[in-house]
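explain this:
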Amino acid sequence: PVWLRHLCGQLLSERLLRPNGVQAVVRGIMEGTGGCAGAEAAAVDWRKCDAVAKILASCPQQCFSLEDYYSLVCPQILDLLHIQDKLTARQFQRVATTTLLTMAKEHPQLAEKHLLQPLLAPLLRGSEA
């Protein structure tokens, strides 16, 4: 039903905007995909990663502005690249890179400001020295 879809979207959006909310959402959706083997499981894993990336790249209606959303969510997306557990890290890195690509296509200026500049800052500092 429409009301249930709206309520779920609202709860998901609220969770994403909290500290560590992106990681919690990704963990919740991706849970259980790492233990399978074979090409079919890998395809399911990629489809889930793409679906999560689309969710993360979409600004919720509850957010005041796209700029606010990017400023809250993008640092959390970059944090997904630093997960230590190897199996979890692979999935999280897929989600992070797919989200980054999606955001860069949809809103290049905001993605540059909130994703690419922080991601490339150490490289730029090293090349200036």
Remarks:
- DSSP finds six helices and no strands in the chain.
